[in-house]
Write a structure and sequence with these properties.
Blueprint lengths: L15 E3 L3 H6 L8 E4 L7 H5 L9 E3 L1 H7 L5 H18 L6 E5 L28 E6 L6 E3 L4 E3 L4 H14 L5 H7 L6 E3 L6 E2 L5 E5 L11 E3 L10 E5 L1
């Protein structure tokens, strides 16, 4: 099971920093080792009540302030508190010129189990952009995203047997360009294998995270994370991402 974020991070968590406000979360500059920031929050309201409005849906539903407001007649007092929080979080992030997306997620698409390197979000991965950027995440209910320490993970493309299998696939497909370009275009170079005995760290519920991603000249390694496994019969999870 993922290890919950402790109230005070011990010395062996050098890549995670706890901040005290949204302003500090946004303003902090990653480095020299920190590549994940957490603003711990205890949120009021019943977020499952909102998720229940989408029970049975097969696809991810994107919500905004208007669609959340449209749910209000169906919610009780605790659900209304949760709706207020979701709307406030969207406004808070837009106020910093961020582009948040509020999603109700029953499940994500999984790659074929026979694929050499799965590249779905259930696999440990890093995000990437061509310009300076970060990822913001908040899990509100059901199951939370989790990270693994960089020191406890290895890129799949750096594992000799996996790299050899990908090279064979590349040569068999006879595609143009270099092998490295092929790895990047298919995002194989962004996915990681956790070491035996690695301890995942849960993002927890209500906490707003900002994590480093891969971009040219990024001062720190990207934060390696994944979506939680889907459990049949559970309500969809509510996730804020930017």
């Amino acid at each position: 099971m993922p290890q919950p974020l402790p109230p005070a991070l011990p010395a062996d968590y050098p890549r995670i920093k706890v901040v005290r406000s949204f302003e500090e979360l946004v303003a902090y500059r990653f480095g020299p080792t920190v590549n994940a920031l957490c603003w711990p929050r205890q949120l009021a309201g019943d977020f499952d009540e909102i998720a229940a409005c989408f029970a049975g849906e097969d696809d991810v539903t994107s919500l905004d302030e208007e669609s959340v407001a449209g749910l209000r007649p169906r919610l009780g007092a605790a659900g209304l508190l949760a709706a207020d929080t979701l709307a406030a979080d969207l406004q808070l992030m837009r106020g910093q010129n961020l582009q948040p997306s509020l999603e109700c997620v029953p499940r994500y698409q999984r790659d074929d189990a026979a694929q050499i390197v799965p590249t779905d979000v259930y696999s440990y991965h890093a995000d990437r952009a061509p310009i300076v950027a970060d990822t913001y995440l908040c899990s509100y209910n059901q199951a939370a995203s989790e990270l693994v320490r960089n020191e406890e993970a290895t890129r799949h493309v750096d594992i000799p047997a996996t790299r050899a299998a990908l090279l064979q696939e590349f040569e068999r497909e006879g595609m143009g360009g270099s092998f490295e370009e092929y790895l990047a275009e298919n995002c194989y170079d962004l996915h990681y294998a956790a070491a035996a005995g690695a301890t995942p760290i849960s993002f927890g519920f209500g906490n707003l995270w900002r994590i480093a991603i891969e971009y040219p000249n990024c001062p720190v390694p990207p934060c390696i994370h994944r979506a939680p496994a889907t459990v049949e019969g559970r309500l969809p999870r509510l996730l804020l991402i930017s």
